[in-house]
């Protein structure tokens, strides 16, 4: 078994944001391999998040972010279970980062279910027309259009988007990491994005 040093634990803690004991346990489990330990913690965080999915979130914060000298503004409501967590820097930073991310990416909704049906219908029709225009056989049109719709959701639904500060993870991954660290269910409830000159 590899010797787990305090420096290794500190490095993993800085990279993962997980607690000291969780980091040590992950390094022991993964034989001192830092990358494997990060994956181990991420999987554990997702499992923790799944366990907490049924809990009520009645506390939280509203954060705002103003960009480009007042040209773009975002307000986001992020909820958690207790006032204690709502007042932590970790939770506040998460809400601020989500507001900044929304300013940068302009998502259509939080999840796929939030995308209005008329937007889905319009996008699907455009993709079908593009595929037909490419001369693809009829039996392939729906399949290719569906693939393009999945890409649309990935790019336009907040939870599926790549986090602008750390593109190797999605917003859902980032949320699950914060859930694992705080030990509470956290949810992004709603947001509003304003842009000067946009409808």
Automatic annotation (TrEMBL):
The keyword Magnesium does not apply. Keywords: Cytoplasm, Elongation factor, Protein biosynthesis. One of its GO terms (cellular component) is cytoplasm. Residues 51-197 form the Translation elongation factor EFTs/EF1B dimerisation domain. It is found in: Cytoplasm. Residues 82-85 are annotated as: Involved in Mg(2+) ion dislocation from EF-Tu. InterPro entries: EF-Ts_dimer_sf, Transl_elong_EFTs/EF1B, Transl_elong_EFTs/EF1B_dimer, Transl_elong_Ts_CS, UBA-like_sf. GO terms for molecular function: translation elongation factor activity. Its main location: cytoplasm. Signal peptide: none annotated. Associates with the EF-Tu.GDP complex and induces the exchange of GDP to GTP. It remains bound to the aminoacyl-tRNA.EF-Tu.GTP complex up to the GTP hydrolysis stage on the ribosome. Belongs to the EF-Ts family. This is Elongation factor Ts. It comes from Desulfosarcina ovata subsp. ovata. The lineage of its organism: Bacteria, Pseudomonadati, Thermodesulfobacteriota, Desulfobacteria, Desulfobacterales. The gene is tsf.
């Amino acid at each position: 078994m590899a010797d787990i040093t305090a420096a290794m634990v500190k490095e993993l803690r800085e990279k993962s944001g997980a607690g000291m004991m969780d980091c040590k346990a992950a390094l022991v489990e993964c034989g001192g391999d830092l990358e494997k330990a990060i994956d181990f913690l991420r999987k554990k965080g997702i499992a923790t998040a799944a366990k907490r999915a049924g809990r009520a979130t009645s506390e939280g914060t509203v954060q705002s972010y103003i960009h480009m000298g007042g040209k773009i503004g975002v307000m986001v409501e992020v909820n958690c279970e207790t006032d204690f967590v709502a007042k932590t820097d970790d939770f506040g930073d998460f809400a601020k980062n989500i507001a900044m991310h929304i300013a940068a990416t302009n998502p259509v909704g939080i999840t796929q279910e939030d995308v209005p049906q008329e937007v889905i219908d319009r996008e699907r029709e455009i993709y079908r027309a593009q595929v037909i225009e490419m001369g693809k056989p009829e039996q392939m049109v729906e399949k290719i259009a569906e693939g393009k719709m999945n890409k649309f959701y990935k790019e336009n639904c907040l939870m599926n988007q790549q986090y602008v500060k750390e593109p190797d993870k999605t917003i859902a991954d980032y949320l699950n990491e914060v859930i694992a660290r705080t030990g509470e269910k956290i949810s992004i409830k709603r947001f509003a994005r304003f842009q000067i000159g946009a409808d």
